[in-house]
Design brief:
Domain Rv2993c-like N-terminal: 1-51
Structural class: mainly beta
CATH architecture of the largest domain: Alpha-Beta Complex
Shape: globular
Largest sheet: 12 strands, mixed
Protein name: 2-hydroxyhepta-2,4-diene-1,7-dioate isomerase
CATH topology of the largest domain: Fumarylacetoacetate hydrolase, domain 2
Organism: Microbacterium album
CATH superfamily of the largest domain: Fumarylacetoacetase-like, C-terminal domain
Number of helices: 5
Number of domains: 2
Strand content: 35-45%
GO biological process, one term: carboxylic acid metabolic process
Domain Fumarylacetoacetase-like C-terminal: 57-250
Length: 257
């Protein structure tokens, strides 16, 4: 099922997407389950938000596609290359990506996002998918010039608005049969199957949880394929994963006073 987080009548709620309506849930399904209220909200009357705001962290994997590592003039890592985004970077579908004045080279990176559903520590790959609540679409926005100049990635990856997520969480998705497609103003820039990942989702979960605990609502970004590039204010970036939906965001420059 597809789970959305939405705003309606100035109230933020969760619901199950059912055709053109949302079946309203009694609480956050990550913690309260799937009890419904009996209310249905027309999809056209709701504003979809980021389907999850991680209470703890967004854990990301860099250079997880060989072709992307090559376009970055980098070697393929021997182990998953991890970095974090703050939860304050998360925005939802339709929200604006804000290009900060510190960067003149801001890039899209379309990715599969994994939402964790249970406390996970020292999880083995063969059991890793038992800890997954569902999947959604992500854009790992990156200030590429700052990534190069800083020598580490926290600032370049962590600006407010640099982690669009959405439009919903699909709890029943075979990611191994999927692909990611990124478009800039309607033109395809990235397209690759998830079988091209160097490290698959179970391997990533095992590696991450050997180091630190994942909590319900934490999000894993699994890396981007080749085809990253710069966008400008006024551009629209769409990241599509068939079966999960299309995450669409426009860009604007920061308002500088």
């Amino acid at each position: 099922m597809k789970i959305a987080r939405f705003s309606h009548n100035d109230t933020i709620r969760f619901g199950i997407l059912d055709g053109t309506a949302l079946v309203v849930l009694a609480g956050d399904p990550l913690f309260a389950g799937f009890e419904t209220t009996g209310e249905r909200v027309p999809l056209g009357d709701a504003a979809l938000l980021a389907p999850v705001i991680p209470r703890s962290k967004v854990v990301c994997v860099g250079k997880n596609y060989s072709a992307h590592a090559a376009e970055m003039d980098s070697e393929v890592p021997k182990e998953p290359l991890l970095f974090f985004k703050p939860n304050t970077a998360v925005i939802g579908p339709g929200d604006a990506i804000v290009r900060p004045p510190q960067s003149q080279d801001t890039h899209w990176e379309g990715e599969l996002a994994v939402v964790i559903g249970r406390i996970a520590k020292n999880v083995k790959a063969e059991n890793a998918l038992d800890y997954v609540f569902g999947y959604t679409v992500a854009n790992d926005v990156t200030a590429r010039d700052l990534q190069r100049s800083d020598g580490q990635w926290s600032r370049a990856k962590g600006f407010d608005t640099f982690c669009p997520l959405g439009p919903a969480i699909e709890t029943d998705f075979d990611y191994a049969q999927g692909e990611v497609i990124t478009r800039l103003n309607g033109e395809v820039k990235q397209q690759a199957p998830f079988t091209d990942m160097i490290f698959d989702v179970p391997t990533i979960i095992e590696y991450v949880t050997a180091a630190f605990t994942l909590l319900p609502g934490d999000v894993l970004l699994t890396g981007t394929p080749a085809g990253v590039g710069a966008f400008q204010a006024g551009d629209t970036i769409e990241v599509e994963i068939p079966g999960l939906g299309v995450l669409r965001n426009s860009a604007r420059d920061a308002l500088v006073s």
